[in-house]
Amino acid sequence: MEQSSFAITPLRDIYTVSRLNREAKAVLEGGFPPIWIEGELSNLSRPASGHVYFSLKDAQAQVRCAFFRQHQRLRGLALKDGLHVLARARVSLYEGRGDYQLIVEYLEEAGEGALRRAFDALKQRLLQEGLFDVAHKKPLPRLPRRLGVITSPSGAVLHDILTTLRRRFPGIAVLVYPVPVQGEGAAEKIAGAIRLAGRRGDCDALILARGGGSLEDLWAFNEESVARAIYACPVPIVSGVGHETDFTIADMVADARAPTPTAAAEMLSPDRQEWLAQFTRLGTRLTTAMQGRLRSRQQHLDWLGARLVHPRNRIVLLQQSLQSLAQRLYLSQTASQRQARSELQALMARLHQHSPRPRIQALMLNHGHLYSRLVTGMKRRRELAESRLQQLMQSLHTLSPLATLERGYAIVQRPETGAVVTDAGKVRPGERVRARLARGRLDCLVEKTRED
């Protein structure tokens, strides 16, 4: 069979330019993850749209880059030709012209970028070792007696710290550990000062301080030696390095981080006014509590005093009881008298109905006569008794030794015993005797005795 002169060929997959560029773009973007790339800026262009276009080159090659406006967070970085930068970018292709290019998402100066990568690497390693663990951080003293300050002695930071401490609580002593805070060898000297303060242990807390600056200026506080010295220090450390937006490795290892050196001083120094106000409140509470305690004790003492009855108080109570009973008796008697008087009046009324007036009058006359005789007899009896009493008194006076004394006699007694001396032979010369006279006594010394 004769074959056709036209060969049967399969259908061709014919690309358009747009399809080719689109699929090439997909291959490039899917084959490369976001990358970090370092190079020198050239052919910098800033159109009115706000986007930035440039080439990134090294000694052998270059690549076009697009830095769109929404990703431009340069933090003060001025882009210019010849600037050495580190960029984070995605590999892509511009379909309109088929140009291979990089879409830049982040850009920084190359030197700081290297430091940033070293910072991140050290941060990750120390984080895994547990140097940032909260459990290891020591509590700050509430009322420190002495603070150590590790900083440059010539900077404004030390003056700000001392001014803050003097304003808030001037009673806190300050010990300064002077160190360089940047430059070659600064990290080792800072670490040495931290270790020295830890060995001495004469401070209640330490302030590690420095003013603000670039990442390179603050690099001494990102060194591993400083971080490990802070971690091993037995004294609590507050890091006040840089400004509020600056973060260092020292901030993460320290027991507390302050946004500024002044804030570090405020963090470790109590507010004098707050303490004085607290003392005032505590004094008021103590006074109130003591007054309440004293009132309670006084009440308890009064209760005990009421239970302990003194004999004098007992007598007073009995007197009061007696007065009460006497009052009750008086009232009872008064009531009885009133009742008896009432009954008497009733009886008198009844008696008046049957009045024995004549008999009573006769009896009254007889009563008057008898009363007169009784008075006369009593008067006579009293006169006789008085006369008899006078006679007896006269007789008694006559026989009384006092009458004898009135006649000039004396009674001699021994002063020791009061015994009456009746015999001169019983008294020796030199002895003392007492002579009782009618009025008064004489103490006598016997010079000589005579016997009749």
Automatic annotation (TrEMBL):
It catalyses: Exonucleolytic cleavage in either 5'- to 3'- or 3'- to 5'-direction to yield nucleoside 5'-phosphates. Residues 15-107 form the OB-fold nucleic acid binding domain. The keyword Cytoplasm applies. GO terms for biological process: DNA catabolic process. It comes from the Bacteria. Residues 131-444 form the Exonuclease VII large subunit C-terminal domain. Pfam families: Exonuc_VII_L, tRNA_anti_2. The keyword Cytoplasm applies. Signal peptide: none annotated. One of its GO terms (molecular function) is nucleic acid binding. It is found in: Cytoplasm. Its main location: cytoplasm. Keywords: Cytoplasm, Exonuclease, Hydrolase, Nuclease. GO terms for cellular component: cytoplasm; exodeoxyribonuclease VII complex. InterPro entries: Exonuc_VII_L (IPR003753), Exonuc_VII_lsu_C (IPR020579), OB-fold_nuc-bd_dom (IPR025824). Belongs to the XseA family. Heterooligomer composed of large and small subunits. Bidirectionally degrades single-stranded DNA into large acid-insoluble oligonucleotides, which are then degraded further into small acid-soluble oligonucleotides. NCBIfam families: xseA. This is Exodeoxyribonuclease 7 large subunit.
